[in-house]
Design a protein that fits this description.
CATH class: Alpha Beta
Strand content: 15-25%
CATH topology: Rossmann fold
CATH superfamily: Vaccinia Virus protein VP39
Shape: globular
Number of strands: 8
Radius of gyration: 19 Å
Oligomer: single chain
Distance between the termini: 50 Å
Structural class: alpha/beta
Number of helices: 11
Number of domains: 1
């Protein structure tokens, strides 16, 4: 089992490679190496091309949903995108916030930050900025965001509970998030869980759906809504790199499944307070 630091280094390495490739190359490759016949990263991605603000140069095809479509972003909002990549969701959010809002993209891969900044500069987007950092320790002050979005990123982070705590911290009271992620129903085969390439491909880093939703609830969020859910099919030519034919058949016939979900939740306007004086809870 890899340590948290080893997993983070793995993700940084793989996504640094991907940042240098276009969407078509990523769609035909596995882990950025170009050595696989079918993609890992793109088996989950949705079509962004019909959304206002879409920029093809910023779409690396790495998401598993369309969180900005469900995020209820308004003019003038401050939006934070976790794992902003080449800037795809940030630029769609910018269309929604208009000239009076602000978008902050956070990514811990330097090559992605460089690519996103170049994309923003080329388009003259002065109210979009990209900050390099770990989303477990966001380089953002508390209570600044109206909306937080993220697309297929939290499943890459070992400490998901820590990320939800950070989301709660940076949101304004009454703010909300809309996050697309990969979750599991029942367990993956052990061989997939141990596969580093599948981790970087957003699959073996996923946790159980009920555990994921409980993390949202236990961190104080309210109004939790499952905005979208779809099952993900992993092609046999990918599974065959990790499982034999009998194991693939058992996986297909079992109850386990991999799902993309988009979850919405709010930070309460008033946080619960503990009773500190006699009679205050009466």
């Amino acid at each position: 089992m890899k340590t948290d630091i080893e997993l983070k280094n793995l993700v940084r390495e793989k996504y640094s490679e991907i940042a240098l490739q276009d969407k078509e190359t990523n769609a035909a490759s596995c882990c950025g190496s170009g050595s696989c016949s079918t993609e890992v990263y793109n088996i989950m991605s949705d079509d962004y091309s019909q959304l206002e603000g879409y920029n093809p140069d910023a779409d690396l095809g790495l998401g598993c949903g369309l969180p900005t479509q469900f995020a209820q972003i308004k003019k003038g909002d401050t939006v934070i995108d976790l794992g902003s990549g080449a800037g795809n969701d940030c630029f769609i959010a910018r269309h929604e916030i208009g000239d009076t809002g602000k978008v902050i993209g956070i990514d811990f891969t330097p090559a992605m930050i460089e690519k996103a900044r170049s994309n923003a500069e080329a388009r003259g987007f002065n109210n979009v900025e990209f900050r390099q950092g770990d989303i477990e320790q966001m380089p953002v002050t508390s209570n600044v965001a109206d909306v937080v979005v993220s697309n297929c990123v939290l499943n890459l982070v070992p400490n998901k509970d820590g990320v939800f705590k950070e989301i709660y911290r940076v949101l304004k009271p009454g703010g909300h998030f809309s996050i697309s992620d990969v979750v599991l129903v029942s367990d993956l085969p052990a061989e997939l869980k141990e596969a580093a390439e599948m981790y970087a491909g957003c699959v073996s880093g996923a946790i159980q759906k009920e555990v994921y939703l409980e993390l949202v609830h236990s961190n104080g969020f309210t109004g939790i809504v499952l905005q979208k859910e779809k099952q993900i099919h992993i092609p046999d030519d990918i599974l065959s790199q990790y499982l034999n034919a009998d194991q693939i058949a058992a996986f297909r016939s079992g109850q386990s499944g991999i799902f993309s979900i988009t979850v919405y939740a709010q930070k309460p306007l008033q946080e619960k307070t503990t009773c500190c004086e006699p009679g205050c809870c009466a």
